[in-house]
Fold:
Amino acid sequence: MEGSITMGENMFGNTMWAGHWLWMLVIAIVVVIPAWRICQRTGYPGWMGVLILIPIVNLVLLYFIAFSDWPVERSGK
Structure:
């Protein structure tokens, strides 16, 4: 096929641009910090906020936080 470009002929090839990893790290920090704080404020351990990075699990986490009884409400703080 003349004129078609395959991934092997792309200037990036199969490697990932270093800025891509930096961008992914920035986005992860921007998303995890609020999720960590929300988990802490609702009475759950903060590390649960890291689960927001895992596809499908992040949706389960959001629904869990939204519809469960928060430990902080049960303790009366």
